[in-house]
Each structure stands twice: as structure tokens, then as C-alpha cells.
From TrEMBL:
Family classification: Belongs to the archaeal-type GPI family.
GO molecular function, one term: isomerase activity
Protein's name according to its UniProt entry: glucose-6-phosphate isomerase
Organism placement in taxonomy: Bacteria, Pseudomonadati, Pseudomonadota, Gammaproteobacteria, Enterobacterales
Sorted UniProt keywords: Gluconeogenesis, Glycolysis, Isomerase, Metal-binding
Class of enzymatic activity (EC top level): isomerase
Record organism: Atlantibacter subterraneus
Length: 186
């Protein structure tokens, strides 16, 4: 083996397929997400349907290390609300993350610790710098899979408990159009 020339991991930019490295895949089912949709009960009609899958390279963690992964968020709605990821703050609040849109159409919803929320459109080629202290969630508003590459500090961790009422914006389809609505309790 020539350890002066190490072959890199690979990403197919058009689809988000990761290869040439050790991979972990985590699939989240609709049935796992009843708490996040307005009509949570409707998720129980198809509890085994995958809502999204996250592939990541199984690389060493630790202070200063980075993880690389791709979220594939499938198209669909629960009632009139588009499929979305659970969303989270980082346990290490100060740590940010970068998303790169790869395929599909959607929104990146962000919310700071003061409760202010905003969105950015996600599409092939979009770049999103998620600041520290900012919760984040992907929403698929299109008819294809929405895939986004993410790079984040391995020590960031996930805090799913600090938004007990959810995000302050919900994204629904109304009369065939994408509507972003402010809500009191998301
Ligand atoms: O953890 P969720 O809110 O379900 O989001 C899905 C994924 O989003 C980002 O890509 C994170 O870096 C992943 O660690 C996370 O698994």
C-alpha cells in the first residue's frame, strides 16, 4: 500500500450518494415524527414510511474533528404540511454547520435562541452557513427527494429537547403554493 497517496472518499454531487469510505445510514420513519407535525396523528397512518435518511462517513470524532453527511429528505406531506426533518440545536450551542444543496427543492428553517425564525431556499448549488446558537430543520417543498450535504463539528451533538413547542414557522401547501406561516407554538 502506498500511504503517500491516499484515495479520498467520494460524493456524487447530482444525487448525494457517498462512496469509497465507511458509511453509517440512519433512517427516520414518519411514525417517529408524530410530535413535529401539526396533524401528528396522521403520521400513524403510515408509521413505517421513511421520511428521511442520513448517510455519513464513519470517521473518528473528537475535539476539532468534522463529520460529513448527506440528508435525503423524501417528498410528501402530512396533511398540508411538507415532510421535514426533526430539527435540532447543537448540544454545543456555539458550534455551527454548513449545508450544501445537492438536488431537489426545499427550505432550510433556522431559529435562534431568542425565537426568531427565518428560511433560506435550498436547491442544487445553494450554500447555507448555519451560525452557532441556531436550530435548523430541512423542509422538502418539491416533488423529488431533497438532498443536502452537511459538514459539522463532531462534538456538536444534537439537542432535540430545547424547542418544546417546535419552531416558530410552519411550511404548508395551500392552493398549490408553498406558504410559510408564523405560528405561536410550532
Ligand atoms: O437530526 P435531525 O434533526 O433529524 O436532522 C438530520 C441531520 O441533519 C444534519 O445533517 C445533521 O448534521 C445530522 O447530524 C442530522 O442527523
Amino acid at each position: 500500500m502506498n500511504d503517500l497517496l491516499i484515495q479520498p472518499f467520494q460524493l456524487a454531487w447530482a444525487t448525494g450518494a457517498l462512496s469509497h469510505g465507511p458509511l453509517i445510514r440512519k433512517t427516520t420513519l414518519l411514525g417517529d415524527l408524530s410530535a413535529i407535525f401539526t396533524d401528528g396523528d396522521a403520521t400513524q397512518l403510515f408509521p413505517d414510511r421513511p421520511a428521511y435518511a442520513v448517510d455519513m462517513f464513519d470517521t473518528p470524532g473528537g475535539e476539532g474533528e468534522l463529520y460529513v453527511g448527506v440528508t435525503h429528505l423524501y417528498p410528501g406531506k402530512v396533511g398540508d404540511e411538507y415532510f421535514m426533518t426533526r430539527g435540532h440545536f447543537h448540544q454545543r450551542r456555539e458550534q455551527g454547520e454548513v449545508y450544501f444543496g445537492l438536488q431537489g427543492e426545499g427550505l432550510l428553517l433556522m431559529q435562534n435562541q431568542q425565537g426568531q425564525a427565518w428560511t433560506e431556499p435550498v436547491f442544487a448549488g445553494s450554500v447555507h452557513i448555519i451560525p452557532g446558537y441556531t436550530a435548523h430543520r430541512l423542509i422538502n417543498t418539491g416533488s423529488q427527494t431533497l438532498s443536502a450535504l452537511a459538514v459539522w463539528p463532531s462534538t456538536a451533538g444534537h439537542d432535540y429537547t430545547s424547542l418544546p413547542h417546535g419552531f416558530a414557522l410552519r411550511v404548508i401547501e395551500k392552493a398549490g403554493k408553498v406558504r410559510i406561516m408564523a405560528v405561536k407554538h410550532g
